[in-house]
Amino acid sequence: MFQVILYYNFQPINEPDRFCKAHKKFCKEIGLKGRIYISDEGINGTAAGTDQQIEEYKNYLWSLPGFEDTEFKQDESDYIPFPRLTVKTRDEIVALHVDDVNPENGGNYLEPQEWRRVMEEEDYVMIDVRNNYESKIGHFEGAIQPDVENFYDFPKWMEEAEIPKDKKVLMYCTGGIRCEKFSVLMKESGWEDVNQLHGGILRYAKEEGGKHFKGKCFVFDDRLVVPVNPKDLEPIARCEITGKPADTYINCANMECNKLFVCSEEGAHQMEGCCSEECRQSEYKRPFDPKNAFKPFRKWYNYFGEDFKEREMSSAAE
Ligand SMILES: [Zn+2]
Description:
Layout: E1 2-9, H1 16-30, E2 33-39, E3 42-49, H2 51-63, E4 71-77, E5 85-89, E6 108-110, H3 112-121, E7 125-128, H4 132-135, E8 138-140, H5 154-160, E9 169-172, H6 177-188, E10 194-197, H7 200-208, E11 213-215, E12 217-218, E13 225-226, E14 249-251, E15 260-262, H8 265-270, H9 277-280, H10 290-293, H11 298-301, H12 307-313
Parallel strand pairs: 2-5, 6-10, 7-9, 9-10
Antiparallel strand pairs: 1-3, 1-4, 2-3, 8-11, 12-13, 14-15
The structure holds zinc ion.
């Protein structure tokens, strides 16, 4: 078994390039795999390794001034769900494309237990602060699922969503980082009672057993989908080819399209791994390999290497 961690810390870094270089060196030395982004606003990462590698990495990060309080979401996987190690500097560790968003002015944290209590007892509006292809396969009961493809589309969505300013707002994302920023924006725009799920869906799954969460959780590593509520594993999404319940994803086998879509094994066979008949006819279609298609998902997009990831990860390491 391997450990997979997800974490962030909005701790200002004076010299991101230097910090990044040292960080990369350390991660390489211990043999960590994953994706770590560093900017002057802090660090955002997801990584995997053996128990020992992960312990060493956590101790390293905790040993850096200002990072002593970094919180890790941790999960097990029977394989390393990253092809390599990427440690890079970025303008923002999670890209909202809005200047001067300080998470210190963010929404009130709700711990998982409190979140569940509020869900059961109070009146509120709940926002899923993730992309449409993520909320599609799993979300909290009653949550608004914005039809956006990138995190940086949320400011525009907020302007148009017509959420009453006097309503209690609950928001959540995978591990918490997107709410750290988006909650600042909502508060600055006039919503007064803004609350964010501390630690996101992944921590809630661990501590509250995923109660009131329907479906599964999309993650930005080769697993792509992880369970949230072990008592409720029924897919809530549908295969875009067959229309039957499914919660596995593939990238369209037409290399010009490469769209990420929900697809069952049956649907993949039917359309030869493509999202449409048009793509199936494309001269840029890579060969369909049914034997490997539904082994760990990565087989599908090994052809593309980092292409899919770079695209998806441009908004978040989570
Ligand atoms: Zn396609």
